[in-house]
Amino acid sequence: MTPDPLRQAVFRLRYLAVALAAALGLAKAVAQEGWSKEQYTSENGLLQNRVHAMERDPWGGLLIGTEGGLVRFDGENFQQIGIPSPEGMLPSRVLEIVPITDGGYVVRDAGSRQFLYKNNELTAITGEAPARKPTA
User: Fold this and answer.
1) Residues 108, 92, 72, 115: is their CA dihedral positive or negative?
2) Residues facing 71 on adjacent strands
3) pTM
4) What does the pLDDT look like over 119-128, one tens digit per residue?
5) What is the pLDDT of residue 105?
6) Within a 10 A sphere around the Cβ of 109, how many other Cβ atoms?
């Protein structure tokens, strides 16, 4: 009795899939050697612990939208990027960071204001935010 060609093909495909999965798993495990894990909070530099958005910038840094505003992390230091807020008002929560084609980012705060962040400069795109409660 000769083996069914369809069964042989299915067996070979299964064998190939298992071998490929094992090889990829091994490559992934080897590639991640040397990685470390660090947790950042407001105690070691992060502006505020509640994070709403994150995007990588072209220089390998990380833009982070928090309850307290926009922050750039370069792998070692946090730099606060000030979003203007009316006197006596709560800081601008950054809810969204969207990369755009020319290398900049549109940043949206909780007051639905939008800003363009490009070349380390923040420029308002929309007008003033609706009234918010004072911090007192």
Assistant:
1) positive
2) 64, 80
3) 0.63
4) 888 888 886 5
5) 92
6) 23
